[in-house]
Amino acid sequence: MPLVVEKIEDGTVIDHIPAGLGLKVLEILRIDRSYGARVALMMNVPSKKIGKKDIVKVEGKMLDDKSVNKIALIAPNATLNIIKNSEVVEKKVVQLPTELRGAFKCPNPECITNMEPIETLFRMEKPAERKLRCGFCEMTFEASELLA
Amino acid sequence: MEFVKDLISIRDLEKKHIDLILKKSSEMERALKGNKKLNSLGGKVVATLFFEPSTRTRLSFQTAAMRLGAKVLSFENVGASSIVKGETFSDTIRMVDGYSDLLVVRHAKEGSARYAAQLAEHPVINGGDGGNQHPTQTLLDLYTIKRAKKKIDGLNVTLLGDLKHARTMRSLLYGLSMYGANITLVAPKGLEMNKEVIKEVQGRFNAKVEEKSTMHLADADVLYLCRIQKERFSDQYEAEKVQKEFRITEDAIKGVKDSLIILHPLPKIDEVAPEVDRSKYAYYYEQAKMGIPVRMAIMNTMVV
Fold first, then answer.
1. ipTM, 2 decimals?
2. Is the bond into B267 cis (omega within 30 degrees of 0)?
3. Which residues of B are annotated as catalytic?
4. Distance between B36 CA and the closest CA of chain A, angstroms
5. Which of A56, A72, A93 is the last residue of a domain?
6. CB–CB of B206/B182 below 8 Å?
7. I need a labelling partner for A3 at 20 to 30 A (CA). Which of A34, A140, B136, B257 fits?
8. Span A32-89, pLDDT tens digits
9. Is the whole-model pTM more than 0.90?
10. Is B58 on the interface with A (CB under 8 A)?
């Protein structure tokens, strides 16, 4: 029997998240129990494209570029549906960013960005492996290390 | 030909940039030998900001600047500067940028020189940023090798020591790879070169890099050493053992090529036996001298 989830009126639906990473997406969006509006997380939904997927629906939230870039790192094929008055007004596929500014703290404790208030910068080094290099200390990190 | 505005990392340089510095270094060395008075930085002020201790790098930058006619601004002791009052790194850089035409920065934090370059209007040279980069050391190492061997490509170069923590080794691997040297990395277990760095040079320059855990120096044209830092070991007995195993003694260099040169960024503690210092292979004192013409060439290129 299909799972029916109420439509949202204004907000964002993030589809095609690899199965199991929906919770991580909520974490990126900083959505927790204190978030007052409606939120739906569907896990392990059958998908023709990726086998199994997670879907996140968030009422009252429009994603900024930083959040979209972060989501792209863990869900490079995710689609964003922008909902207004219960209608999809815009549909976009996230894109793996070539550069991320101010999105993450550098995991290297010796990096200058952890000593002074500097906007961090990471550049995509190997898109296939989702490895990024810090624009300051030059160390490379896996996307999962930045999201930890 | 244009050089980079700031010299922060060897990774920012192309071969043409390094070629330019090697060529100019040779000109500077000739001028120094001929006692030629140079004044290309006359009227300029070079600031050397060493937030970390240094002897060779700081003194050679200062000497190089003076040899080009510049005046030098410096604090040698962080304890005697406003940093002890809690002044931030960024404020110090902004302030000194207002006083000088070129800044040389050494700081323990990785990426500090890159940050300084973002803050300063004048050119910034990285004099060493934590365990990350030391580009002027690499340029003087490449110059020393080319000067001694007349080429870099095809040379068998062995890098030996703590390859994990030494910033000079990381930068040098990059520079040597760019020039097509055959590189052998010899490090004690646990102190090997970061695999990402090896993969990067193999990917970018098709570099020939081989890793070994014991010394085989028979084919080496250049042996480049760095200190194995005892403080990196939790077990001091193990540290002593490793240091002994990788120490360069008369025995260790038996059967090496007659033309072998041994380089070391200095300071060295006890990784080289005193009898090796007196051998024809010891080239590190000559290498240290090259700091002057190479840093003169760099500053001369960067300050307009």
1. 0.89
2. yes
3. 56-57, 85, 106, 134
4. 40
5. A93
6. no
7. A34
8. 889 989 999 999 999 888 899 999 999 998 888 888 888 998 888 899 999 999 999 9
9. no
10. no
Mean pLDDT of A87-106: 90
| DSSP one-letter code for A83 | E
- Residues A85 and A29 reside in one and the same domain: yes
Give which of A123, A129, A136, A139 to mutate to test B binding, by max B Cβ within 10 Å: A136
Q: What angle do CA A15, A19, A20 make, to 5 degrees?
A: 115
Q: Does B88 touch chain A (CB under 8 A)?
A: yes
Q: Does residue A119 belong to any structural domain of this protein? A: yes
Strand partners, B159: B185, B224
pLDDT, residue B84, reads 63
Query: Is residue A6 one of the residues assigned to a domain?
Result: no
- What is the Cα–Cα distance from B272 to B225, expressed in whole angstroms? 9
Interface check for A137 against chain B (CB to CB < 8 A): the answer is yes
Pair (A15, A46) in one structural domain = yes
Regarding whether A86 and A119 lie in a shared domain, the answer is: no
- Number of neighbouring beta carbons within 10 Å of residue B216: 11
Residues A51 and A16 in one domain: yes
Are A85 and A122 in a shared domain? no
Q: For residues B116 and B94, what is the distance between their CA atoms, to the nearest angstrom?
A: 8
Q: What's the total number of domains in chain A?
A: 2
Cβ contacts (< 8 Å) between A108 and chain B: which residues? Answer: 110
Name chain A contacts of B132, Cβ cutoff 8 Å.
Answer: 137-138
Question: Looking at chain B, which residue has its C-alpha nearest residue A111?
Answer: B110
| Segment holding B61, helix H or strand E | helix B56-67
Q: pLDDT tens across B48-90, in order? A: 999 988 888 999 999 999 999 999 999 766 666 666 667 899 9
Q: In chain B, whose CA is at the least distance from the CA of A141?
A: B196
Our CA-based measurement puts residue A111 at a distance from the nearest CA of chain B, in whole angstroms, of 5
The reply to whether residue B111 touches residue A111, judged by beta carbons under 8 angstroms, is yes
Q: Select the residue of A110, A111, A138 nearest B11 (Cβ to Cβ).
A: A138
Q: Is residue A1 part of a domain?
A: no
Question: Domains in chain B, please, with CATH?
Answer: 10-133+291-302 (3.40.50.1370), 135-288 (3.40.50.1370)
